[in-house]
Amino acid sequence: MARYVMRVRTDLPPAEAFAYMSDLRNFAEWDPGVGSAEQVKGDGPGLSTAYDLDASGSMLRYVVEEYEPPAKVVATASNRFITSVDLITVEPDGAGSIVTYDADLTLNGLLKLGDPLLGVAFKRIGDKAAAGLVEKLQGVRLS
Hints:
The protein is α+β, with helices and mostly antiparallel strands and 143 residues long. The protein has helices at residues 14-22, 27-30, 115-137; strands spanning 2-10, 34-41, 50-55, 58-68, 72-78, 82-93, 96-107, 140-141.
């Protein structure tokens, strides 16, 4: 399993930061590894909504498993190669907020043998996404 966690402090109030982060179509705006993101089930963010993301040439269908505005979203995706569990939390910080993005990637089947190598690649991909999120939220990376 590969895990990547980033925390960003932004001046956006929690409700606004959550509204942006919980709409997975926005991933394509800040994560350079996401070529496109389209909502395929539901109307806007919410529980059980689904999004197709082209992530580095691999299509992943994310389904929102938990939706607790304005604090928490959990979305999962799986294809024959990889499973991803993404946890997004937003907590108040003065007039702004702290956004935490915590992603776990696991290779499926016999590919699991490559999990240690996945961690190295995922860090590079995650660092690029973190830079994009900091820029989009006009924030500061905390970790």
